Amino acid sequence: MADADDVRRLALALPHVAEIDSDGFDFRVAGKGFVWSYPERTPGRPRVIRTDIAVLYVGDEAEKQALLLGEPDLFFTTPAYDGLPLVMLWLARVDADRLAELVTDAWRMRAPDEGTGRFSPGSGRESAGPA
User: Under DSSP, is residue 50 helix (H, G, I), strand (E, B) or coil?
Assistant: First the structure.
């Protein structure tokens, strides 16, 4: 079971990440968002920032559909996100290892190639390469 503090810890451990001032969490690399709090919109009501739900950049529609169909208990989307490479993740339903994988993958897809290098998730540093 994860929460917003877990997202913050994982995102800030990645190189070149900036946290944007927000009512929830909002992380960028090279000026591009890769994980942020879900801004829930209900017609006729003000937007509500949901820190129990993370929006993740997933790269493309194929990956989005694979996550939505493969793990429907973790991921969902809304019509507002149709055509966008983004999914929403219920944080309370994901374990720490899976969350680390998802946040790191989102960061890798948004970071400049030279920024990802041989970064080793969980270590906070670049690895020496394959063992």
Answer: strand
